[in-house]
Structure formats: C-alpha cells, structure tokens
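Researcher: We're teaching a course module on how sequence relates to structure. For the next exercise, students receive a sequence and then see the predicted structure as tokens, so they can try to spot secondary structure elements on their own. Here is the exercise chain.
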Amino acid sequence: MDTENHRAAVKHIIETYARFRPSHGNIRLDTVFDETHDRYALMQAGWDRGRRVRGNLIYITLQDGKVVVEYDGIEHGITDDLIRQGVEEKRL
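Model: And here is the predicted structure for the students to work with:
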C-alpha cells in the first residue's frame, strides 16, 4: 500500500469516528488533516457537566512508509480498523 492509500485509509477512519456523537455533554468533534506534513487527528472540544472538554481522540502520522498511531483514545482501538482498510500490519 502506498502513501496515498494510507492517507485515504486514515482519513476514512477518522471521518467515520467524527460522525459519532458523544453520549452526553455539548462536545464537538473536529477532523484535522494536514497532508503536507502527513498529520491526521480527531479532536474533541466542548463542555460536559460544567467542565471543559478538549484534546485528541485520535492522532496519526505517516512516516517512512508507515502509519504511526501516536494516540488512540477510542475505546476498542483503531488498529483493526486500519487493517480492515488495507493497511498491512507490518506498516503499523
């Protein structure tokens, strides 16, 4: 799988999770795609029970032909999602 396919797979997964809505609070999910530097993220921002919520849910970089999961805040993890999208396990 080449870099363009890795980008497409990562963006598809992040866009899929961005469609989910948190079960409580007023929290916005934002996708961040920097194809120039190959940095991809799903951010959360908002309020829940009077407290500020912000930060990464997913942060992935592409480097040296690999998909590097820098941060995975998804309950079941996204590695299987990446593999289902065609990213070879040895590229993770």
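Model: If you want an answer key for the exercise: The first helix runs from residue 3 to 18. The mean pLDDT is 94.
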